[in-house]
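anyone seen this seq b4? input:
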Amino acid sequence: MLATVDERSYTPGDSSMGADHPIAWCQRYRGGRSVYTAMGHTSESYAEPLFRAHLLGSIRMAMGRARFDCP
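predicted toks r here
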């Protein structure tokens, strides 16, 4: 899991997921790596430096060029 969301921070919240509601994760898959993110649903998201850093880090990790790797 790369990121979780606090369901109390938005409406409507789905409390069925609880405290560890994943919003971004990675996994090894058939000798490679895949990354998923549910963030970026608005055009304003792409103006946020932290979101762009998340995307760039995810791309680098999937390419095997990041300082971290998916377990």
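The chain has a mean pLDDT of 83. The CA atoms of residues 40 and 48 lie 10 Å apart. kinda curious what u guys think
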